[in-house]
Design brief:
0% strand; 20 helices; mainly alpha
Length: 546
């Protein structure tokens, strides 16, 4: 009962944090509210939460990494793959070395291997936090694609580096050659396992669905189990469960393109995964706030051992690490940009030199978030000989401080840097989208013609099928006509589409309100009302996305 009560309190805190963030007159990132709520909970009640690192890692990281891989826009990643790879791998190693030595120099009580582990933990960035910060100032799409691609890959590279640093702490030895060989095995093996688990699971469920029909609930449950299966199998085979989860998510995005799942399955599954992401992210930050007083006490003890008797030195350490992270990122982004421009000049391409604000925004957008927090909370509690893991509380506190300070700094600085910021133009996909809509509509017309012929053949009321088919095909022909026009006619057609979309939404709102009014008057059963409202909601969602 106690465990269930704690889980319910954490979930309630996540719900309340969302409401507080929406009510706040100042645009602050949601994680700050969640951490604050966790501190409030710790001050009024001792929940007695003891985080087992391995369980925490397994519970939260596989689904979050899987979803990142599943939903990341692949075309943006492939277009800017050079920049993304430089940030996701080169910058991570640069950060681990630079920040690791800095932390060890500032805090001699923290062993070098632990300092490297901390540096690896704070290297991954969080685009979700950036999106929340810049909600009032839209982020240019291309910049957001780069940040998303970087985050997906540096999550894996940073956490793998952390695992090596922790292993070096536990064993007391480290061999670069051995680590390189091990890295290749754990990386290649993890990627292969993640791809294999997703491919085999989807093939099996698709075969069963074709033979015996599809049940939406089980399809959603399978998608929830895949990241855990990939992670556990990879870890059992001594490969990277982190990379397996990421690879499983990327593979999921490709196998889903076969379109074999039912439409209702895709709609409900998307809603379930949105809830999982919101809940997991929220619980992680609420747990941090709940653990923060205890972590602060342990961190102050380590600071005392360094000869600094004032807890204020903790703030000095946090600010110093943040400044080092920002400086290293700024240096790397500037160097990477120079290198990219040099390669473009060698190829004879036209050069567009980005402004200093772009470089500053790219650097400031390196906000730390969920993955950093989840990673640092998985540091072992004890060494192999049973002694306490050195400076664990201090490492957790410093990582938490980096997260909070980077969120605050980006909240203040990013809106100013992003306002009016111009990037190299994003390639327009409108023509591709129009061609796809035309091709889909033409395919639909052919299918309707065949179906009405087959359904009405030999029947006395065949004209009814012809009339019904003509009404449906007319809608598709209107879509083809509107998307086939060019110039001013195309702009006019799109304006008419927008007007029609708004009118349809107004009509759908009226439909829904009337259905609810009829239900309240007890003139319609709840079951029938749910069916009608769902039909309206699906159409509403369609026209809002359009």
């Amino acid at each position: 009962m106690e465990t269930i009560s704690v889980a319910l309190i954490l979930l309630l805190a996540v719900v309340i944090s969302g409401a507080l963030a929406r009510m706040s007159p100042i645009a602050l990132p949601l994680p700050l509210f969640q951490i604050a709520l966790g501190v409030v909970i710790a001050s009024v009640a001792n929940l007695g939460v003891e985080l087992e690192p391995e369980i925490f890692f397994l519970l939260f990281l596989p689904p979050l990494l899987f979803l990142d891989g599943w939903r990341i826009p692949k075309e943006g990643v492939f277009r800017d793959k050079g920049t993304i790879l430089e940030l996701a791998f080169g910058l991570v190693v640069f950060t681990v070395v630079g920040v690791g030595f800095l932390v060890n120099w500032m805090i001699p009580a923290m062993p070098l291997a632990v300092a490297f582990a901390l540096a690896a933990i704070v290297s991954p960035t969080d685009p979700i936090a950036v999106s929340a910060i810049a909600a009032r100032v839209p982020i240019p799409k291309r910049l957001m694609h780069i940040l998303e691609g970087e985050s997906l890959l540096n999550d894996a590279s940073g956490l793998v580096c952390m695992r090596f640093a922790v292993a070096a702490t536990l064993t007391g030895t480290f061999s670069l050659a051995e680590a390189a060989g091990t890295f290749l095995w754990v990386a290649i093996g993890g990627i292969a396992i993640g791809m294999g688990v997703t491919w085999s699971a989807t093939k099996a469920k698709n075969w069963i669905s074709r033979k015996f029909g599809e049940e939406t609930g089980s399809q959603i449950l399978i998608s929830l189990l895949i990241p855990f299966a990939a992670y556990l199998l990879a870890e059992r085979l001594h490969c990277s469960g982190i990379l397996a989860a990421v690879a499983a998510g990327i593979t999921m995005s490709y196998v889903e393109q076969t379109g074999q799942a039912l439409a209702v399955t895709r709609v409900r599954r998307s809603a379930v995964w949105d809830t999982v992401q919101f809940t997991a992210n929220g619980i992680i930050f609420v747990l941090l706030g709940e653990q923060l007083p205890q972590i602060l006490a342990g961190a102050a003890q380590v600071v005392h051992e360094t000869g600094h008797h004032e807890p204020a030195w903790l703030l000095v350490y946090v600010v110093s690490i943040n400044l080092a992270l920002a400086a290293l990122r700024l240096l790397w982004v500037w160097t990477s940009l120079r290198f990219t421009l040099f390669r473009a000049a060698r190829r004879g391409e036209a050069l567009v030199t980005p402004s200093w604000r772009l470089i500053a925004a790219m650097s400031l957008a390196g906000v730390r978030g969920t993955i950093t927090l989840a990673g640092v909370l998985t540091l072992p509690l004890v060494m192999a000989d049973g002694t306490a893991f050195p400076a664990r509380d201090l490492a957790i506190f410093l990582a938490a401080g980096v997260i909070i300070l980077s969120l605050v700094a980006a909240s203040i600085g990013l809106p100013h840097l992003l306002k009016g910021l111009e990037l190299p133009p994003e390639p327009s996909h409108q023509e591709d989208e129009d061609r796809a809509r035309i091709a889909a509509s033409e395919a639909a017309i052919r299918a309707v013609e065949r179906a009405q012929h087959d359904m009405g053949e030999g029947r006395s009321d065949a004209d009814l099928y012809v009339d019904a088919g003509a009404r449906i095909m007319e809608l598709y022909r209107q879509r083809i006509d509107g998307r086939s026009k060019t110039g001013e006619e195309r702009d006019l057609a799109r304006k008419i589409d927008e007007i029609e979309r708004r009118l349809r939404l107004a009509g759908l709102r009226a439909e829904r309100d009337e259905i609810y009014r009829i239900v309240r008057s007890r003139s319609l059963t709840d079951e029938a009302a749910r069916k009608l409202v769902r039909e309206v909601d699906l159409l509403d969602a369609r026209f809002r996305v359009t």
